[in-house]
Inverse folding.
């Protein structure tokens, strides 16, 4: 089977076929999660409470603190994208727990023994987490709109925000999956998860601008992927919003980190069933 | 499936170590295409570890295992296309219905979308699950869940079906139903079936040949009759098991 010039179209068809097969497997994994949420949406509803409280309580009080606001607008406008990013983070960062849970039950074996490439399983799981992130966004948009945040409802902006949430959910849930593959038990995971969430959240620009931070913290915040997500959301969610780092850089950082984490998770995921 | 002249499952000096524990110790055996093969042995003898190596879940420490000629360590993807695996734990998702579980498997195994629906319905019918297919699996009895997992594991018509203690914890009716369906499936598909069990009656009734695993090694290998003949007379498989694993049951009142 030498690859002569005539094999070009044949090879292209074969490549399209295997890409189609790959996507079938990715979406098989992601769909299973969406179906489960449809069967029992209580988890989605209970998780929507926390961001609403942040906006309602924290946001209302902090809006009266002078000096927090550097963008010239209202603090609630500043906060809403940060809270969206935060709730995506909080939902995704405990996603690894469900991987350990699936291992303990035995469900993970069904995935692992299938011929689906490990990367397809990891990406499928990442997209599954995105569906939860998107449902959070709907709640936060509704709440923020009621509170008078100047949201942009341009279709392009909404589509880009959705894409951004899918990407950020994938990033943090894959990060969480990697931790699950390393610690392997629920108890240890809970400890590590709690330990990581707060620094990622507070060492970012989610609820206060970088300019208020001491120098060393600003450096940490600049290497924190959450800051780039928040920055992009501030640009896309708000009417007349703008990005501090540049949308291209934001998207680039998020894409690169996600890709890297998927590569690592692909190697580690099979260790869970060993 | 592959019509290979050699054995469908083959192990040569297959070994797995966990730290200092030798879980599987130089196991060599061949299983023919279409054979019903039983693995018996006490808990911790290495049956599950052996099966996890055959199914690519854990890599061997040394030695070699092949499925339809494909090395489990070198071409795990090719192996996975040709096997079905029903692990000891419940691998069907309790939060999905039986039908949704089947559809998930059909997509993971890349059953062409045009054939998916009919294959899934036929498999559910074959396992006697058509009436309960739209119920969440967490409401299934143990036997129903096992049958669903067998259906999920054979949807792609594997050359070998591995089952790790498929009837443990089931009531007699559930056990009987599982074996009736496995037999029917075996007749229809002709796949080899490799299973582990603690029930000697089950091993004797179901399998063509069996291997007795003790301390990670093959202690005996043959048809149930051959194994019994080694002890002679009226020996049962239980006697063979006790003799070869040194786990003789102390006579009642014979303790200290």
């Amino acid at each position: 089977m030498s690859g002569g010039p005539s094999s070009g179209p044949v090879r292209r068809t074969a490549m399209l076929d295997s890409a189609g097969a790959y996507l079938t497997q990715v979406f098989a994994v992601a769909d299973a999660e969406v179906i489960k949420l449809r069967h029992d949406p209580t988890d989605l509803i209970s998780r929507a409470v926390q961001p609403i409280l942040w906006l309602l309580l924290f946001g209302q009080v902090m809006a009266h603190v002078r000096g927090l606001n550097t963008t010239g607008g209202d603090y609630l406008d500043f906060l809403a994208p940060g809270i969206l990013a935060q709730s995506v983070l909080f939902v995704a960062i405990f996603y690894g727990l469900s991987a350990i849970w699936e291992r303990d039950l035995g469900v993970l074996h069904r995935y692992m023994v299938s011929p689906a490439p490990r990367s397809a399983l990891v990406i499928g799981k990442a997209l599954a987490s995105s569906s939860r992130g998107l449902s959070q966004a709907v709640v936060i948009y509704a709440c923020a709109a009621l509170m008078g945040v100047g949201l942009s409802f341009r279709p392009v902006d909404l589509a880009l925000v959705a894409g951004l949430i899918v990407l950020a959910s994938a990033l943090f849930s894959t990060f969480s999956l990697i931790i699950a593959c390393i610690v392997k038990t629920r108890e240890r995971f809970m400890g590590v998860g709690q330990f990581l969430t707060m620094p990622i959240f507070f060492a970012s620009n989610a609820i206060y601008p970088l300019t208020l931070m001491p120098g060393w913290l600003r450096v940490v915040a600049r290497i924190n992927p959450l800051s780039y997500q928040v920055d992009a959301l501030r640009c896309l969610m708000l009417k007349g919003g703008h990005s501090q780092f540049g949308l291209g850089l934001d998207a680039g950082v998020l894409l690169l980190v996600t890709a890297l984490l998927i590569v690592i998770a692909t190697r580690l995921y099979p260790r869970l069933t060993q | 499936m592959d019509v290979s002249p050699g054995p469908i499952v083959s192990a040569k000096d297959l070994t797995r170590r966990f730290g200092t524990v030798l879980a599987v110790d130089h196991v060599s055996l061949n299983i023919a295409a279409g054979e019903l093969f039983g693995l018996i042995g006490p808990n911790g003898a290495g049956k599950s570890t052996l099966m996890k190596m055959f199914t690519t879940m854990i890599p061997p420490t040394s030695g070699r295992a092949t499925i339809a000629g494909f090395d489990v360590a070198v071409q795990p993807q090719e192996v996975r296309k040709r096997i079905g695996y029903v692990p000891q734990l419940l691998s069907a998702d309790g939060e999905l219905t039986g039908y949704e579980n089947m559809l998930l498997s059909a997509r993971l195994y890349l059953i062409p979308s045009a054939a998916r629906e009919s294959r899934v319905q036929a498999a559910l019918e074959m396992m006697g699950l058509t009436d309960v297919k739209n119920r969440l699996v967490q409401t299934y009895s143990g036997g129903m869940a096992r049958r669903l997992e067998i259906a999920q594991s054979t949807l792609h018509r594997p050359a070998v079906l591995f089952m790790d203690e498929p009837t443990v914890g089931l009531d007699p009716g559930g056990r009987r139903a599982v074996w009736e369906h496995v037999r029917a499936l075996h007749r229809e598909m002709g796949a080899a079936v490799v299973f582990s069990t603690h029930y000697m009656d089950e091993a004797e009734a179901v399998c063509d040949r069996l291997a007795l695993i003790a301390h990670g090694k093959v202690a005996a290998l043959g048809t149930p009759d051959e194994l019994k003949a080694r002890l002679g007379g009226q020996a049962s498989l239980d006697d063979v098991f006790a003799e070869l694993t040194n786990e003789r049951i102390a006579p009642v009142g014979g303790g200290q």
